[in-house]
Amino acid sequence: MGALKVVFRLLGAPFRLISSVMGRFLNTPFRQATALLVFAYLLIEIGIPFIPPLVGFPSAPVPNTVVLEYLVIAVVGILLWVSDNEERWSEFKQPIHDVLVRPDRRVARGFLFVIVPALVAAQTYLSARPDMSAPPSFRAIHPAPPSAITFQGEQIVLDGLENPLRSTGSLEEHYEEGKRVYYQNCLACHGDGLQGRGHYAQIFNPAPLNFQDGGTIAMLTESFVFWRIAKGGPGLPNEGNPWNSAMPAWENFLTADEIWSVIVFLYEQTEHEPRTWEEEGEEH
Amino acid sequence: MRVLPNLRSGGWFKVLLSSRHITFSSLLLAASLPFVPTHLGAQVDGEVVYNQWCAGCHGEDGAGTGPAANTMLPRPRDFTLALYQVRTTATGGLPTDADMLKVINEGMPGTAMPGWEDVLTEGDRLALVDYLKTFSRFFQDDPPTPLDFGRATPETDEAIARGAEVYQTVECWRCHGQQGRGDGESAPTLNDAAGFPIVAADLTENWRFNGGGEVEEIYRVLRTGLDGTPMPTFSDIVDAGVITNEDLWSLAHYVRRLSPEDEPEVREVVTAKLLTDTPLPQTVEDIVWEEAEAFYVPLAGQIIIKPRWFNPRVDGVWVQAAHDGRELALLVSWGDPSESPDTLWADFGERVLTTMAPGDEGSASGSGAADQLVVQFPQELYEGQERPYFLQGDARRPAYTWTWQSDVTGAFESIARGMGTAARQADAEQHVRATAQHADGQWKVLFVRPLDTGSEEDLAMTVGQAVPMAFQAWDGDNGESGNQGAVSTWYFLFLEQPTPIAVYVQPPVALALTLLFGLLVVRQARLGSGMVRELDASARRKRIARTRQLAGMGVGVIWLGMAFGSYQNSRAGWEAGHADLGFWWAIIGGLLAIAGLGALVGTWIHTRTSK
Q: Which residues of chain B from 113 to 152 reach within 8 Å of chain A, CB to CB?
């Protein structure tokens, strides 16, 4: 039991250190509020993007507008907390008031008088400067699929559609056929590694999809993938920017079976599971 | 019969340690299993890895004839011949394991072979090296010994000058051309060991060099040659004393210098520089182009609609642009060894066409077409971000194009609703002028067009606005024509605008306002804390008077500032040929100037007496 105590003591040490530091430095509402704000910023900017990789999802930097929005919420929350009781509120205001008024805070006051207007002026300059960047691109990566498509003159209902090859013939043969189709047609852009890094990949914008990524075919049904392959860039709805996608409409090149077999190949080669219609139903 | 050991007393360890079947080393291995890549735990089968990831191009039999092979030129390596380009060994020799691993890791730039370093584990890649060697019995011989390359000589101006001399001595130009763009006299005759046509590398694009583009890598290729290609080794003439080893290093430095320092960065926006003092360039050799920033636009084979083209000659164009407020000048430069149709290259084009057979109906049947460049814009700018389809538009949104062809003087404007549907505009509606020059394996084509042609059919360009722009290029002598050429997706052309006066006015105003606000806050806080005594009546009057004086003067200064801004706008308007804008801004400026002066003088007069 004694050993257990030592372990707990050791585990507790960092927390005791933190609380003693906090007791010494974060002893006024103003400092606490500032620390909270900094903590909130770090959590949003660094902490949150760190979470998805822990459970196996890729992550991305948080957009600035989102950071700003959450910070505004954090500021409102902190203000609510400091103004919640009269004593804390006046304690909170005290250091601000001191800087504005007290003669011995002249240096800090002067500093603020230089820094704040300079920042405002710099910000004004940046926003007034002529902007020579491309217009922003808003593009839906997985636009909503239609419920049915016309494929080579034939109506195909996509809702609830399964890959017919999964219930006929040998999966291994479909994989081999899909591999042939992939290497003869898809390779130049989507690449040997299926990461969207073929030798033409860097030339096209938007870049070819990375099938290894958990955010592409792994979260789509096979019928969605069939639609995207069959209709390609030109078949995208407007929100998918059909004018700039270099994905061909493969219905002009391949039969339905060839497309279904290449879909088998994509999932087998990446070891992803297609999303099934049951899952889809549950979520709605 | 073995009794189950007592777990709590550490019985398992005793069992393991005492067992004669388990050696200490395997115990260590077992203990370290969670920390090492799985390949050490289990023997990786190179054949499985090969068949899954490599056979699509190289074929299960290793002969380089997988399903994808005939969409590629150069073709995938035939491992059964044991001919390897990237080696540290003498020409004709086998590569070392490290050589083979380097290619697997980094790929072959400029070809379809990607790098596998972050796709396959190290164990998988090492197993692949072993498996590749089973395709040829040559690897059963003694392992090859790498050549001694010595150390790189320093990159000095003398070394580069010496390299340029060696370039002439050893006749690199026979294939690679005088400027290194692969346009030498022998270039059209080149074949690889398997008899497929092969191009002499464009030495100005080191990011596409087989085996790497840095000095050490170039030197290695000079020493070892690229076996299986016409690129020879130069070790023999060093050994024969024709040139020294140092000369070869100098040559490597010189070749490296033919390319830019870094691989060009692809940027979405091409900026057209605003020329205010210099006239708009009318020739490809104008001095303006030496200063103007060059933007690299990479191109890919048109493999989107039938008939596809997997072997584009033009892998990118350099774009420079300038305008003077009235006209736009656009200079497009790209590497192309010949002025198609060139009879010296006719056979090469035929050989490429028979080699590249995607089997799409409508594929070109003969070479000998002209070189062609199409610069494409939308016919009009749409609401939002909508654009025509990047392959020369669609039925709903037509593209407006400039076409230049090597066998026709000038260029012409067309409206297209899809690839191959371009309809040339009437002669009266032709506004674009073009001049072209072919020198040392490079085309330079200069387009000039008024920003606004006054025609409803043409895209009107506005200063300060981003206009979508895309490029397509064909090399006739490479067997390209029709849909079979090189294409890009959409980029933007931005016409630089004169810096608006607001950029200079707004920041100081914002600064002054913030400062004023700060002063007010401090003052308020002081009043609130009783640190400032209430003023008596006369002092208050004085203060009010001073405040009025300040306010009046401030208003006057701001109005004068606005008057100055109007003057600037007026001048810009006159200069851009908009007399109406110039006139009205002048009127507004004049009124503001009168008001500002009035405020200053009036304030001065009225506050002077109140002292």
A: 114, 116, 119
Q: Do B490 and A244 touch (CB under 8 A)?
A: yes
Distance, in Å, from the CA atom of B264 to the CA atom of B299, rounded to the nearest integer, reads: 13
Inform me whether the C-beta atom of residue B57 falls under 8 Å from chain A C-beta atoms.
yes
Q: Do A200 and B301 lie within an 8 Å CB cutoff?
A: yes
Fold that domain B157-257 belongs to in CATH = Cytochrome Bc1 Complex; Chain D, domain 2 (1.10.760)
Verify that A157 and A113 share a domain, yes or no.
no
Assign 3-class secondary structure to B406-424.
CCCCCEEEEEECCCCCCEE
Please state which architecture CATH assigns to domain B269-495. Answer: Sandwich (2.60)
The residue of chain A nearest to residue B49, with distances taken between CA atoms, is: A269
Nearest to B385 among A116, A135, A253 (CB): A135
Interface of B with A in 307-346 (CB under 8 A): 310
pLDDT in tens, B257-308: 999 999 999 999 999 999 988 999 999 999 999 989 999 999 999 999 999 9
Residue type, B573: G
Domain boundaries, chain B: 1-35, 46-140, 157-257, 269-495, 535-608
In contact, B472 and B376? CB cutoff 8 Å: yes
Task: Give residue B557's identity as a one-letter amino acid code.
Answer: V
Chain A, residues 249-278, CB within 8 A of chain B, namely: 252-253, 269
User: What's the confidence (pLDDT) of residue B534?
Assistant: 59
Counting residues of chain B whose pLDDT is more than 90, the rounded percentage is 66
Residue A76 at interface with chain B, using a CB cutoff of 8 Å: no
Give yes or no for A105 touching B (CB within 8 A): no
Task: Kindly state whether B507 is in contact with chain A, defined as any CB-CB distance less than 8 angstroms.
Answer: yes
Contact B497, B335 (CB under 8 A): no
- Complex ipTM over 0.95: no
Distance from CA of A106 to the nearest CA of B (A): 11
Q: What is the pLDDT of residue A76?
A: 87
CA A211, CA A270: separation in Å to the nearest integer? 7
**What is the per-residue pLDDT across B113-165, written as a single tens digit (0 to 9) for each?**
999 998 899 999 999 999 999 999 999 888 889 998 888 999 999 999 999 99
Compute the nearest-CA separation of B84 from chain A (Å). Answer: 21
What's the pLDDT band for B533 if we cut at 50, 70, 90? low
Q: Which CATH architecture has domain B46-140?
A: Orthogonal Bundle (1.10)
Residues 6+ away with beta carbon under 8 Å from B52:
A269
- Among A91, A125, A159, the domain boundary falls at A125
Name which of B301, B418, B420, B298 is nearest B358 in CA terms. B301
Residues of B in contact with A109 (CB under 8 A): 522
Phi/psi of residue B372, nearest 5 degrees: -145, 145
User: Do the domain assignments include residue A57?
Assistant: yes
**Does residue A115 belong to the interface with chain B, where contact is any CB pair within 8 Å?**
no
Determine, yes or no, domain membership for A102.
yes
Tokens 């060894």, residue located? B337
Whether chain B has a CB inside 8 Å of the CB on A204: the answer is yes
Q: Over pLDDT 70: what percentage of chain B?
A: 90
Quick: pLDDT tens for B175-232.
Answer: 999 999 999 999 999 999 999 999 999 999 999 999 899 999 999 999 999 999 999 9
Portion of chain A with pLDDT greater than 90, in percent: 45
Report helix angle B215-224 to B245-257, nearest 10.
130
Q: Which of B68, B301, B397 sits opposite A187 (nearest CB)?
A: B68
Within 10 Å of residue B352's Cβ, how many Cβ atoms? Answer: 23
Nearest to A130 among B67, B499, B515 (CB): B499
**What pTM was estimated for this model as a whole?**
0.77
**Cα(B111)–Cα(B228) distance, rounded to whole angstroms?**
15
Q: What's the pLDDT tens digit per position in B36-66?
A: 444 444 467 899 999 999 999 999 999 999 9
